[in-house]
Predict the 3D structure of the following.
Amino acid sequence: MDEALNDLLQDLAVANRILVNEGVLDGFGHISVRHPQHPDRFFIARSMAPGLVTAADLLQVDLDGVVHDEQGRRTYVERFIHSAIYAARPDVHSVVHSHSPSIIPFGVTGARLRPICHMSGFLGAVTPVYEIRHSAGESTDLLISSQALGRSLAQVLGSASVALMRGHGSVTAGQSIKQSVFRAIYTEKTARLQMEAMRLGEINFLTDGEAQATSAMNDTHLQRPWEMWKRQALRNWD
């Protein structure tokens, strides 16, 4: 394994720990990264709690959701979230699926999650909501457990950075691990802030232009929070 790939896998393992440490993942949820040499595959952990993931726990999955692992290990049932988004979005190189608690209310009510501050411009004007009933009826377990369901979720996500999943959680897409981690953390933070602001009165959200400009600005500073989150997560590594 070359050094660049090894560093990428180490970052993916650390990203799992960061997202747990920041309250986005817990015993559930997952993050993946597209294979840099083989864009028709991605890396994701074997089926396990994200807070325990190391680089040795990572395996490869193709864009049909088929696991390729010499050790015969299994990964998450909802790997199809990742495979379908990578297939639909060549620009996406990292995907996070979480059940972070503050996001759930916005997927089950009429309240729209929107950028409330300069750290959440990546949300844009509309954060789409995926309704699994439209694709699979009213008796599912809400899990994206097939490539067909993954494709229906990817279609709702479209070109957006984040899509909510009614009664389930959310999916976040990024051009890198650092960007997807940043977006997943600040989606949760934004949801908390918006609920607090809604108690006080009408919210003055960012304009579309402000959202685009702040998102572009934050993308130039991803290393700063990443190093802090990484150090904090590594303190709790064992």
